[in-house]
Amino acid sequence: MNTALPEDITEFGAVAAKRFTRFGGPQAALQAETDDHVRHDARVALADLGAFDLDIRSADDDLLAAAVLCQAAGAAALPYPLVEELLAIDGARLALVNPEAPRIDHGDLAGDWIAADLDGTRYHVQPSSRTSAKLGPFLVPATLTEPDGTVSAADVDLHLMLGSWRILGAVQQALEITRQHVTARMQFGKPLAEFQAVRFTIADASVAVRGLSELAKYTISRTGSTAAQVRSADALMLRLKAADTARQVLRTAHQLLGALGFCDESDVSILDRHTQPLIRLPVSSELIALRLMPGVRGGQLETLFSEPVAAEPV
Questions:
Q1: Using CB atoms within 10 A as the burial measure, which of 40, 90, 127, 174 is most buried?
Q2: Of the candidates 87, 65, 68, which has an alpha carbon nearest to the alpha carbon of residue 76?
Q3: Confidence at residue 303, expressed as pLDDT on a 0 to 100 scale
Q4: Are 79 and 42 spatial neighbours (Cβ–Cβ below 8 Å)?
């Protein structure tokens, strides 16, 4: 089975990665913590790539392009709410929140916001100012109004999927940094990579990342060919897998880099801190798993042994 993305999509992802490297990569994200002009420049970089011309709701190729763009943004820890702006409604960025403890990443940026929970309930939102938190440095508390209509389930699903692609890019980059470190770092007269325990740890992380990559491609490729309930289950499962993989890979990176992995001189530290909102929000992995349980019983969560569920007629 050929699971490769179309060549033009792959090329677009490579161009985006080069643009974000020229922008400054994770070190630019670190600079953005104290210089708000950097986030404006990040939006300029996205505009240069045509990010805001993508019609991700109705064009399959544009959705794939958005996915690899989010992947490249995750690898660079791009300090901008890309997913939220790609899914903007009437010019207002769309954030997914937990109504019991609403938080919005980059919510302090100028512009209008709306929020939705995983059930699609819509809220008008008033973000507050930034805190001094190190984990999720752009995460701000928010105040929600009373429920005001709904957001389509398709938008919620796309939000979860594209956020998972950002996580994928971050863990791929963290794994590559770790691989380079264990190859170059000498211990007892030989590279760390020659120790069997280190090889096993890197291999486990690599398998997890490869699995997440294949699941991300599979999920995004069939958004328009499955029933709405199946698509929602797919999106939740992808986000659950992305969060679990991120925890495993980042833990491995910190273990093998040692103290260096917790210092901002290493991009792993920046990737970790800036990816935490995606890993933890809008709800925890445990709550996502609980939301999947009815789908397991009802057949919406497809497995290798499931009967196919037909898409709804258009």
A1: 174
A2: 68
A3: 63
A4: yes
